[in-house]
DNA sequence: ATTGATAGTACGGTTACCTTACTATCTGCG
DNA sequence: CGCAGATAGTAAGGTAACCGTACTATCAAT
């Protein structure tokens, strides 16, 4: 018995803790995404900006709506929007029907970035599927979703 | 054709982006781990403290060694150690052979926390295995590791 | 017209890191 | 031996990504 696994109650055995595994997976994926975005000329986009790109409506959304959908506070989201505005990815206009509210809308460039990000993430996943197995990646997705749902309930 | 998937080039389709999936999986796992630790009386342990618990040697380790293993800077790790010291989980003693260096060692309580954390993570994983399938969780682990290795190379 | 809710902003705080000095100590060489 | 250069750790200050608690502007409803 040199290095055989699976004695009896041996479960995980893979030594590396789950949170570290998830964190590293997230990190390598995001690193690649942002590297590619930069490569394609979408400068100044950072991790936190995803909260806007992921949840904004085509016709624009209110700050409060984006905050709720992303689970961030209004302030946190406000800062993100300000940065994206500075970089020309979104614009803030006062809602004509409600002068308290502002509508945040993707600019042409912002839409391009959104499309590019979705495409790049798709490419990353497809490359994984090619190298590690299409079914295995699909399964990983499903199991991750189930795990999240399970722990949240 | 109501809601059937798998037309042609349809790959991920699961709408939720991979980084979000990984992040949520990490978050729910860590939330549960720290909740349980607290429940068992291990107070004041935070996410970042894992860098010490995961990488420290039984005979104690130097700050520099822990920093290297965890990928953090010496300063970042120094702060973490200071906090763990305040909470009584580790102690810092000057290395008798090299007075520049200090040896960081788990206290009795620190070792208990380390053991508890490992046990709890094992329990979490076992529960997933019971509810979602033992093989599926094992596969998820493997695929995650492969994905990480793949993107890092 | 005032009162209470709502949209967004301002200000300050926290966590988890980082970089750039700096001090103390050790090691090797002339 | 004595000093140069490396190494261990600390100090100071900065940044990113958040948070909560005010506060202002506006709206809606009596």
TrEMBL record, chains A, B:
Q: Which residues form the HTH marR-type domain?
A: 1-149
Molecular-function annotations in GO: DNA-binding transcription factor activity
Note the Gene3D superfamilies from the entry: Winged helix-like DNA-binding domain superfamily/Winged helix DNA-binding domain
Q: Which GO terms describe its biological process?
A: response to stress
- One Pfam assignment: MarR_2
Q: Which SUPFAM superfamilies match?
A: Winged helix' DNA-binding domain
PANTHER family membership:
MARR FAMILY REGULATORY PROTEIN (PTHR33164:SF99), TRANSCRIPTIONAL REGULATOR, MARR FAMILY (PTHR33164)
What name does UniProt use for this protein? MarR family transcriptional regulator
Q: Which organism is it from?
A: Sphaerisporangium album
The lineage, from the top, is:
Bacteria, Bacillati, Actinomycetota, Actinomycetes, Streptosporangiales
């Amino acid at each position: 018995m040199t290095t055989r696994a699976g004695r009896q109650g041996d479960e995980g055995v893979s030594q590396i803790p789950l949170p570290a595994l998830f964190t590293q997976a997230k990190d390598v994926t995001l690193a690649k995404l942002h590297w590619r975005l930069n490569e394609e000329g979408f400068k100044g986009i950072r991790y936190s900006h995803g909260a806007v790109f992921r949840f904004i409506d085509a016709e624009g959304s209110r700050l409060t709506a984006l905050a709720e959908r992303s689970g961030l506070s209004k302030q946190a989201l406000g800062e993100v929007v300000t940065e994206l505005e500075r970089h020309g990815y979104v614009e803030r206009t006062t809602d004509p029907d409600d002068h308290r509210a502002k509508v945040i809308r993707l600019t042409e460039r912002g839409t391009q970035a959104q499309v590019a990000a979705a495409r790049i993430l798709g490419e990353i996943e497809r490359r994984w599927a090619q190298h590690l197995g299409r079914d295995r990646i699909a399964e990983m997705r499903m199991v991750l979703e189930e795990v999240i749902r399970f722990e949240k309930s």
